[in-house]
Amino acid sequence: MGEIKFKKKTLVEAINTTLQKTEQTAAEQSVATPGGRFHVRWDEGGSATALGQLPFFAEFLEVSGLFARWVDGCPMDYTSPNAPKVVDVLGTWLLSILDGQRRYAHVAGLRGDEVAPQILGMNKIISDESLRRALAHLAPAPCKYGSEEERAARAIQLAKSTAWMDKALGESTQESLRTPWILDADTSVKLLYGHQAGAEIGYNPTKPGRPSHTLHTYWIGNIRLVLDVEVQSGKASAAKHSLPRLCQLIERLVPEERPALVRGDSAFGNQGVMAEMERTEQHYLFKLRQTAGVKRLIERQWQQGDWQNAGQGFDAVEGKLRLTGWSGARRVVVLRRRIKDSMAAAETSNESQQPTLHFIDHSDKVKLWEYAVLVTNTDYSSTPLASYTGIGLTVRMASMS
Questions:
Q1: Number of helices (H) and strands (E), helices first, in the chain?
Q2: Which of 164, 186, 316, 378 could pair covalently with 310 via S-S, beta carbons 3.0-4.6 A apart?
Q3: 34-66 pLDDT, tens digit each
Q4: Distance between CA 13 and CA 8 in Å, rounded?
Q5: Could you tell me which residues come within 8 angstroms of residue 280 by beta carbon, excluding any fewer than 6 positions away?
Q6: What does the domain layout of the chain look like in residue ranges?
């Protein structure tokens, strides 16, 4: 009897083991990566890792060929036999970014991972010092005191690297430009706590006196897909520093891929930017600062009372305006929205950088409104204002008011 029970128990264990292996095999997924084919199996009881989704992202890179073209087009020409491979430099850089690292020293935390380099087809993860030297070689800083040959070589290398990154970034956004889209342009301040090139004390609303960089960002509206980011010194926060790159991005696109609108805040609503957009026949929509002339325009529109419902809680009215320094009169659209909170709460709010205008409506005791004045070169004479604000402009303007 004991032998029969033992044989049955062994048979049951064998069946259970076979079933577990079958379930594991069924749960495995085969992915093709730059480093070859890998089998991925979920382990619900295992420890979490920030790079757990890397095999699936690597499969996307392999199928699309983005990573291979990025590595092949890299203008890094090391001559030493002991220098790291290009795929190791770019792979370490990519893994560091995917892991959310912000400093070179954090790369040391990746050197214990033996699977991630294999997935990307790398030989190894290089050290932070090697990565720092490689990126400095790839994009050298301008040299002021070197010879003319050295300065020319640095400029040529920087131009090659810029063209290489522009091409790689353009491939990731090209398909999104086949449908009507809006180009958003904006600047942001990045605080610096170390000695970095271009760290200057400029416009800094959060921590005045702290050196910073200015990030000039250009992206596709609504989906927030970045077209380009240009890093400039802390003093280059005005829109005129964004204008050259903005024009370059627009002019390199074919007419079918150009944006339906270039949209920006009040920093872009000046004669220089608008004149350049009109020269390239590019439609724009910029916000105007509430200067004395703009306030008089709002007062005139308020007295006329021909406001139309533009949707999303906004009323709109259009007109013509020519401010001092403008080359001519331009079409403007005034948006207003009634604030439901009390006047005291609105006055103490710090969300708006510009003062809110208060008007008294004789049909009611007191009404509190907020305004945004937009200038544009588009012609929507045959289109109602509700359709004009129905393409996502109202939400953007409300956030900037």
A1: 13, 12
A2: 316
A3: 776 766 676 666 665 667 677 888 888 888 888
A4: 9
A5: 247, 250, 251
A6: 181-276, 288-400
